[in-house]
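Sample intake sheet
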Amino acid sequence: MPRLVHADQVGFIPGREARDATTRVLSAIRLAQVRRTPMLLLSMDADKAFDRVSWRFLFSTLEHLGVGDGFLKWVAALYDTPTARVRVNGALSDSFHIRNGTRQGCPLSPLLFALFLEPLLTSIRANANITGIDGQHHTHKLSAYADDLMFMVTEPSVTIPEISTELTRYGSLSGFLVNADKSEILNITLTKLQCAQIRDLTSYRWCDGKMKYLGVWLANTPDRLYAENFGTLFATLSDDLRFWKTKMLSWIGRINVLKMNVLPRLLFLFQALPILLPATFFRSLRSLFTRFIWPTRSSRLQYRTLALSKQSGGLALPDMKWYYYASHLTRIVDWMSYDSGQRWQDLETALSGIALWAVPWIRKPLLRHRVVSDTSVSATLAIWHSIRSKFALSSAPSPLLPLIHNPDFPGEISKSLREKFTDEPRFQVRHVLRDGQFVDITLDTSMPCSFLDTFHYHRLRLYLRRLPGNSSLLRPLTPFEKFCAMGLQLDHSISALYKIIQKADDYIPTYMGRWERELDMPISTELWTKTLQLTHKGTRISALVENSFKIISFWYRSPLLMARISDNGDPSCWRNCSQTGSYLHIWWTCPRIRIYWTLISTLLTKLTDHTPQFNPEVYLLLQVEGSISGLKRSILLRVLLCARALVPRHWRSPSLPSISELITRVQELRLAEETLVSSDKTRQAFHDTWYYWDTTLSTADFCAFTGEWGAALALLDGSPGAP
């Protein structure tokens, strides 16, 4: 498809996105303003675009594009004399034949429409009377996202009538029709007199300073973009979260709402409008999210902790500022791509005055008077220079420092000299290095150098020797620089770059250090990895995952903590053991709760013929002996997760969970897992996991154990202070 459909069309084509269209139009607007080129934007909306597709024209277009006979027959089979009937008030009409339009809901329809529209776009590009704005190497006349057409018109008095002629001619052949009532014009740099003349040529509606395009408000002045788009979105998010705040959502469920609903909306704008955003915007977002996660109480965990990845001890709560950074880093990776085909890059090259692949690595002072301000290029560079060292993305200078298109190193480097180092079209410092040393090609007798090559080589070495901080040129490439050096567009680039930023943050959750103090022992990274893996991946039941994370993160408030934050609080354990109710005491060292864990230990032994070590590291932090994969399949982990989840049900109460509560909770987990069985393989794994539970539950030994459990609780209830 990318080879059949020109880069002007970005809708539903692999490797192309809506941001390619919006970024291109933004750059065209700014370039017209800088050059003072008279320009307007003409947005055209097709009337029932997919329904009006003429099949005869469609198949003729496919044949002209060289689509094979086999594929044509497959497509023709989908459109072979289809019929339809209309139901009106319960009555069905007679069948009638359908002769135009693409199939609704068919994944092939958007691709067919893109091919169907290509003759129109080709004709417009070839029409010399339809003008556009000139970039560095190309003229940009229009941008298309499926049937949404955006024209960048620089000579409107001639161009607009020509566009109408092209549309009329194409419509007579294909059935395509423009909805004039929904088509709009946005003046960018025309004078009032020019606008008055154009109004007489067309009946299209004129916008007052802004125009909606692909979900984004375009404005004729850069300073309006933030308020019209991000300010409006923030107000919408505030209303949505205020409404959802009253709903019965779990704690982790609220975080998932931010991930699944809010994050995509912000990410779209971050990519579609690559502009500078004030720090106050992100502070307001963080405050909004915090109030949503903790609707009725103050936050019990730092936002920074929750924003860590699950492997690092957090809950992967989106850090919107980091996602904003990742969206701009994606643009830099795009700049470094050898053949991305992204049309907006040509316009941004014109705005920067330097090849985009070279711009990030050139010293910042040299760019100050070359890159046009208030552009997507200047925004990305400002963010890049503010975060490149902070997140270990790169150092200055970098091994990717360009040796051509570099204002700091003027003059030519002969092509023959470049070819001695690399056959790549770009020439960077990394190409003249080998094993951390500069390559001395003058000593290589197999590749003799001409006088000119030798002169250029020594001039190059002199430049690099005098370069401040040149020792960093010899270092290995950072992970981000490796992405850039590949010269390819990244799949899932936002996620990949967000993870790089995350890994550069060396923050360690405070609860990890607190557990070491509570237990008076160090906990290795390997043990914390097991704790976090079993916390988040030990079960697919979200309530148990939430309980596990709450335990390790000190989410639950002990009597001692509540006494500290209230004036008249009592720090004593509420189980009437006359001891101070610290967090570890409530969960483990209280004489009454130890009876509960002893009973759980006995049950685990009966189920598995294995007695886990009796300590809080095992029962509270899940640091059980055995492999993580084996524990995920074991009944031991499931019973332990259910037993831990019952303790908060008796929070602020002297009572302990009963055996019937435990059986009920485990059976609920069993039923939930059974509903997730989807194949014979997973069914066998399910039966293997639950075999010992199912067979033990009905034995006489288990019945006797339930009696022992009840007797132990009765004894505790009779003498509350005794173990």
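Comment: The CA atoms of residues 52 and 101 lie 5 Å apart. The chain has five domains: 18-220, 226-318, 320-394+489-507, 396-477, 522-718.
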